[in-house]
Design a protein that fits this description.
Chain A: InterPro entries: INO80C/Ies6, Vps72/YL1_C. The complex is a heterodimer of chains A (about 140) and B (about 675). By secondary structure, chain A is an all-alpha fold. The longest helix of chain A is centred in the N-terminal third of the chain and has 21 residues. Classes of the chains: A mainly alpha (about 140), B alpha/beta (about 675).
């Protein structure tokens, strides 16, 4: 096996990484049956240190964006769909039908009087649930 | 009406395949479609993937003092609902970020393939997300090369593979790929991906399922737990469709008759509680009581035996004393835990009394007859049912009226409360008038409170109207209803319910409301443009000629392409977008979920192509971890430029980025 030395770390770091990993490695071997095809000494280079940390997609993208890419390079972050230019349509929260009205008290959309009666009898957690589902539950305003 | 039932499909664990010598010695490539929903794995020589499993694992939570449970991967998870909150996936949206989980998944794949050599000595062809960030690829390459020692890796994009597999001419076209976390619109121009004009919409099957799940839970809060994500998924896969004209479809559904004809009714599993006859219930209760008596008797017997044993020991000690063996006696006394010799007779007396008591109890229990013959009296017995026919009728009528009175009172109270809540009603005007009158401070003789009636004014200005739905009233109401249920057959027929009626889910508009998210992300608060708008945006990036070419060859793939109506909807949307009488043709992949794997397998069978399109370990070490060899089904590759503020030795792990610990849970 080629001794793994990521270009990422300078020698100090690499040594540190090695040191940190020794106890963890043995522990891993103890409590998990390692398949035979797996390299027993392998450690993810990105998880140096005691805590295994993984970058979230957000962090990866933030990092990717910070690099000086040549102009017009397609990247994960710049092929995101554009925002909608059409005004969003209103649909009744409880029935899904097209809604003309908004209940000023609960802020729910409704399409006819029957639905209004139902809306008024809904408990507050259900109302909050519908609003959250629509992304309209703003606890401040 | 038919009642549908949830099938609750169970998965069966994947079998372990044997590692045949023919495969072992010929370097057969392994084809992996690493999708964010399902993962499909197989040798390049087989007809269809050997394993298809959910790309996730369940890791039991660590608890102190308890042994860790086994980690379950993919199809090992027989009941996914039981471990829903412990599910972990390597994906963050459609990108692999958590390589440790990916490692477990690879372990699962390779061990099921039967590999038993030191390294995985097979070329790998694996799919990655469209425009996968270089960082993510570097992690994946590192894992495969360093951990498993694979000879080479070929990365491909699933949607492009699927397009190549099924598209008719396959040179210029527009791919619409509906995945689990995202939907891509990718133009292919003269055989090459035009990544610059591609767009990704962050809505996929996952969002549609969660939306539907939540909708149903809010509609039926009682069945919160019974409406599971797996059932919702089943509902989506088997009963949902995309509306061709959403508003038109909604209008149809707002008609009562249409609703009744097209509603689908799902019966949730339930256990009927009233299936036992009173006789059976009584029997059961008696049985329970008998068992309890038996247990008590046994306990008494045990206690008796124990006490007798102790008594015998003590008597033996006393015998020692009588025989004059002083030293042994002392030792035995202290062994027994007694303080002094004087305690011995006292102790013997105590135990003898206890034994006597227990014996008496046993005798008493045996002689007394069945003690639970008396049934708890029903409340109904309080009401004397009149004997005569006429009397009975009027009595029932009276009970009925009483019940209605209570209900009416309640309704009035409720009305009053809601009137009071608003400011512009007559009731609240009246209230304010009274309050201001009371508050008016008149110097002259203030005799308020001299008469008792004066205080009634406070009842009038109370928001509740002076009294509330009291507990006593509710009890009375229940009692009356019980009486009516018992004696008035017509009362029953009013509110009679078929068994299980309360456990039925009526699913109507929801069936096309959830998939509509793809076209109207605003429905769940997402600000991105809908799929139709994104297609329009992409097409607008080209000149008229090219846009025409693209709309003549639209190809839909990905799991959601299985939804019926999607094709017609896309055609309808394109007709709106494109100029009048433009030629539009839309094709849906024959097997949207598997065609990418098939194409990858076919390409892997061409060993010389695979060799020229793969990254070897040398490439990996020389050209950087993130290196990707471009080919006809791969992502475009641009090597990451060095960061602007270059730090000694840092190439792609800039220390300026603070890494946080992340745990991804699939909900």
């Amino acid at each position: 096996m080629v001794k793994k030395k990521a270009p990422v770390f300078d020698s100090d770091n690499a040594a540190l990484e090695e040191g940190n990993h020794m106890p963890e490695n043995t522990e891993d071997n103890k409590d998990e049956r390692r398949p035979v095809f797996r390299n027993a000494t392998f450690q993810h280079s990105t998880t140096a240190g005691k805590k295994k940390t993984w970058r979230s997609l957000k962090q990866i993208l933030a990092h990717e964006k910070s690099l000086p890419w040549p102009k017009d390079t397609p990247l994960y972050s710049n092929i995101t769909a554009p925002p909608s230019f059409k005004p969003p349509k209103k649909y009744s929260d409880i029935s899904g039908l097209e809604a003309k009205y908004t209940d000023p008290q609960t802020k729910l959309f409704y399409s006819n009087t029957d639905e209004f009666a139902t809306v008024r009898t809904l408990p507050s957690d259900i109302i909050a649930g519908y609003l959250t589902l629509r992304g309209a539950n703003n606890p401040i305003g | 009406m038919d009642y549908l039932e949830f099938k609750d499909h169970k998965v069966s664990p994947d079998q372990f395949f044997s590692y045949l010598d023919s495969i072992k010695n010929s370097n057969t490539p392994i084809v992996i479609e690493n999708g964010s929903y399902n993962c499909r794995v197989g040798w390049a020589t087989v007809e269809k993937p050997l394993m298809v499993f959910k790309n996730c694992l369940a890791k039991p939570r660590k608890e102190r003092g308890k042994k860790d449970g086994e980690m379950q991967v993919g199809n090992d998870i027989v009941n996914i609902e039981a471990v829903r909150f412990q599910l972990k996936t390597q994906f963050d949206r459609n990108i692999v970020t958590h390589c440790e989980i990916q490692e477990h998944i690879f372990n699962y794949m390779f061990s099921h393939l039967g590999i038993n050599t030191e390294t995985v000595n097979h070329p790998i062809i694996i799919t990655e997300a469209f425009m996968n960030p270089n960082y993510s690829r570097s992690c994946m390459s590192e894992l495969l090369f360093e951990c498993y020692g694979v000879p080479s890796i070929c990365y491909a994009v699933d949607s492009v593979l699927s397009y190549r597999n099924e598209s008719k001419n396959g040179n210029t076209g527009l791919i619409i790929s509906c995945g689990y976390y995202s939907t891509h619109v990718i133009p292919i121009i003269d055989g090459a991906i035009d990544a610059k004009h591609s767009r990704r919409l962050d809505i996929g099957g996952y969002h549609i399922t969660s939306y539907l799940h939540r909708l149903l839970q809010l509609k039926y809060p009682v069945h919160f737990a019974a409406i599971t994500l797996s059932r919702t998924e089943e509902l989506l896969h088997e009963h949902c469709h995309v509306a061709v004209d959403y508003l038109e479809e909604l209008r149809k559904w707002s008609d009562g008759d249409y609703y009744d004809q097209n509603i689908k009714c799902f019966q949730l599993p339930y256990t009927s509680q009233s299936s036992l006859t009173p006789e059976q219930q009584k029997e059961r209760r008696r049985e329970l009581a008998r068992r309890l008596i038996e247990i008590n008797a046994r306990k008494r017997e045990e206690k008796l035996a124990e006490d007798e044993e102790q008594l015998n020991q003590l008597l033996a000690i006393q015998d020692l004393q009588d025989e004059g063996e002083e030293t042994e006696f002392q030792k035995a006394v202290s062994d027994f835990g007694l303080n002094s010799c004087e305690d011995l007779p006292k102790m013997i007396g105590q135990i003898q009394a206890r034994i006597e008591k227990t014996r008496q109890k046993i005798v008493a229990a045996n002689t007394s007859e069945d003690p639970i013959t008396e049934e708890p009296k029903q409340k109904i017995m309080k009401f004397q049912t009149p004997k005569g026919e006429e009397d009975f009728k009027s009595w029932v009528e009276g009970v009925r009226r009483k019940r209605e009175e209570i209900l009416e009172k309640r309704a009035i109270r409720r009305q009053r409360r809601s009137d009071m809540a608003k400011r512009k009603t007559a009731a609240s005007f009246e209230r304010m008038r009274l309050i201001s009158q009371l508050a008016r401070n008149e110097k002259r003789d203030d005799d308020f409170g001299l008469r008792d009636e004066d205080w009634d004014v406070y009842k009038a200005i109370n928001k509740e109207g002076g009294d509330t739905d009291s507990e006593g009233e509710t009890e009375k109401l229940l009692e009356l209803e019980q009486v009516l249920k018992a004696h008035d057959p017509s009362f029953w027929s009013e509110g009679i319910e078929a068994p299980g009626e309360t456990h039925r889910l009526h699913v109507g508009v929801e069936r096309f409301r959830a998939p509509e998210l793809l076209f109207q992300p605003s429905m769940f608060g997402c600000h991105q443009a809908g799929l139709a708008e994104v297609i329009e945006y992409v097409l607008n990036g080209y000149d008229e000629d090219m846009a025409n070419k693209l709309s003549k060859e639209v190809f839909i793939t990905g799991g959601l392409a299985n939804l019926s109506g999607l094709k017609d909807r896309i055609i309808a949307e394109l007709t709106q977008i494109r100029p009048f009488r433009s030629k539009i043709a839309v094709q849906v992949a024959n097997s949207p979920s598997l065609s990418a794997w098939y194409k990858a397998r076919d390409m892997a069978r061409n060993l010389s192509w695979l060799k020229s399109s793969s990254i070897t370990k040398e490439d990996f070490l020389e050209k950087g971890y993130e290196y990707l060899k471009e080919h006809c089904v791969s992502n475009p590759y641009t090597s990451s430029p060095a960061p602007i503020t270059q730090i000694e030795g840092a190439v792609h792990n800039a220390p300026s980025i603070v890494s946080e610990e992340i745990e991804i849970d699939v909900i």
